[in-house]
Design brief:
The chain is an all-alpha fold. The chain has a domain at 1-6 and 40-101. Helices cover 43% and strands 0% of the residues. Residues 1-22 are annotated as: Disordered.
């Protein structure tokens, strides 16, 4: 996100709830990205937050976040050291199979 000129230091103020990412990441490679919407101060899952999320600034932040994830995926896919790992993960038939290197 720094590529797009955003401050990437940890956010202050709003904090999130819980997710199942800790459980998921024990089984498969996982990523739980977090992005901020400029000017958002309303609690998530509220009508006020929904309104803020439907603004041009929010859509720009969403686009830039998606682009950053795509750049990351491309960089990993282009790295020869990751090819076997990617092959293993992409051919698994069950999330219980251990694909970690």
């Amino acid at each position: 996100m720094a590529l797009f000129g955003h401050d990437t230091s940890p956010a202050r103020g709003m904090s999130g709830g819980s997710t199942d990412m800790g459980n998921i990441s024990q089984v498969i490679p996982s990523l739980h990205p977090w992005m901020s919407i400029p000017g958002a101060t309303a609690p998530i899952h509220s009508e006020a937050f929904a309104a803020i999320a439907d603004t041009p600034a929010a859509y720009e932040a969403m686009f830039e976040s998606a682009a950053a994830l795509a750049f990351t995926a491309t960089a990993i896919a282009e790295d020869p050291d990751h090819h076997q790992f990617i092959q293993t993960v992409s051919t698994r038939t069950s999330v219980t199979e251990d694909a970690r290197p």
